[in-house]
Design brief:
Layout: H1 7-11, E1 27-28, H2 40-49, H3 63-73, E2 80-83, H4 86-97, E3 106-110, H5 116-123, E4 128-131, H6 141-149, E5 153-159, H7 171-182, E6 188-191, E7 216-221, H8 222-225, E8 234-238, H9 240-250, H10 260-271, H11 273-296, E9 300-301, E10 308-312, H12 321-330, E11 333-334, E12 336-337, E13 347-350, H13 354-369
Parallel strand pairs: 1-11, 3-4, 3-5, 5-6, 6-7
Antiparallel strand pairs: 2-8, 7-8, 9-10, 10-13, 12-13
Helix pairs in contact: 2-10, 3-10, 4-9, 6-7, 11-13
Length: 371
């Protein structure tokens, strides 16, 4: 603690990202990156943009990228916001959509979800409540609807599919939640970082609901679905008034959030939907296969619709989540372990290539059968 920090800084507990080791080579299955490279058209666009025009500021409105996104999904550019990754956009959304100070009405989100949400809420001084997920780790939408009807909500954010469980919320549940919040003129944010990997027909993107609900904001990232975690590009789609709110916060903070290279690369990625549909279908196939094989090894595997699996090693083999995490790390394999109530025995396992996952599965078998 520094004597030069203000009281707010002293109280903050920052988000801790997954390990990014430098000292030795690990097989990284801990940060939910797409295992396949970005579209060649993205690389070409970035290389073309790396010219003398870098001396000039980029377009602060990100208009070309917003128009590209709008055309793909059937919206107006004014209904699209582009930013430096979805985390930045989420920070702007918390600041623009949710109230501070009123301790009677609370921002609601699950107790097991993306751990950046409580960080943002505390940063912006937004009172919040974390609603327990069910015993099967699915979101209990009925509790949220009841709290809305009782006037206890100031808004809701869902990660869908949820992180770190990978379990998706159905579109019908999202529709009911958005409708209930709209009666109170409150916002529902749906964080769709992993939606490109959902393969059940009732758990797809909530984008079609935007035509019904002006209080719905969908936030997405190109980190996972477009293999661009190193580029930092994300976008939001919603009503013009919600998008204007994001712009007001951005322009009080940093008007030039996306650089020229990111703008060109992101636009190329949005245009090359066919390429990404193919590689992401491979990730889905790998996820299904690995889930089946982990179950055969005795793991408790949650029904993921994401780029990762959330799985607990077989308790009868005497290995806790922490012990299994350590054993994998000793074999050069990184996964994510959250030492928190209810999920301490689970590991979040990002999908790598099929070859990488074969190595991972082999290591799991060795650990389980080790005397």
């Amino acid at each position: 603690m520094s004597v030069y920090w203000n009281e707010k800084t002293r109280q903050l507990k920052p988000y801790i990202p997954g390990e990014q080791p430098r000292d030795r080579k690990y097989m990284k299955l801990n940060t939910n990156e797409n295992p396949y490279p970005p579209s060649p058209k993205v690389i070409e666009a970035i290389q073309k943009a790396a010219n003398e025009r870098l001396k000039l500021y980029p377009d602060p409105t990100c208009l070309e990228l917003r128009e590209t996104i709008a055309a793909r999904f059937g919206f107006k550019a004014e209904e699209v916001f582009a930013g430096n990754g979805s985390d930045e956009i989420l920070a702007f959304a918390f600041a623009s959509c949710f109230e501070t100070g009123d301790r009677e009405k609370l921002l609601l989100f699950p107790d097991i979800t993306y751990s950046f949400y409580p960080v943002y809420a505390k940063l912006w001084d937004i009172p919040f409540a974390q609603i327990p997920v069910k015993d099967d780790f699915s979101v209990d939408s009925g509790v949220y609807l009841e709290m809305i009807s009782q006037g206890k909500s100031s808004g809701i954010i869902f990660s869908n599919p949820n992180a770190p469980t990978g379990i998706a919320i159905t579109l019908e549940e999202l529709r009911k939640t958005a409708a209930a919040l709209e009666k109170h003129k409150q916002v529902l944010i749906v964080d769709e970082a992993y939606i490109a990997f959902a393969d059940e027909k009732d758990t797809g993107t909530a984008i079609p609901l935007l035509k019904e609900f002006p209080n719905l904001l969908i936030v997405r990232t190109l980190s996972k679905e477009a293999s661009l975690a190193g580029l930092r590009a994300g976008y939001a789609i919603g009503s013009e008034e919600l998008i204007e709110g994001l712009c007001r916060i951005r322009d009080c903070f940093n008007s030039y959030t996306m650089d020229r290279l990111a703008l060109e690369g992101a636009s190329a990625a949005i245009r090359d939907a066919a390429y990404y549909k193919e590689i992401n279908s491979r990730v889905i196939a790998t996820r299904r296969r690995v889930a089946s094989q982990l179950k055969a090894l005795g793991f408790n595997v949650l029904p993921s619709q994401s780029t990762f699996l959330f799985a607990a090693p077989p308790a009868e083999k005497g290995k806790s989540g922490q012990e299994f995490f350590t054993a994998l790390r000793e074999r050069g394999i990184l996964v994510r372990h959250f030492n928190k109530p209810r999920i301490a025995d689970f590991l979040r396992i990002s999908m790598g290539t099929d070859e990488e996952m074969d190595t991972f599965l082999s290591a799991c078998g060795e650990i389980i059968n080790k005397k």
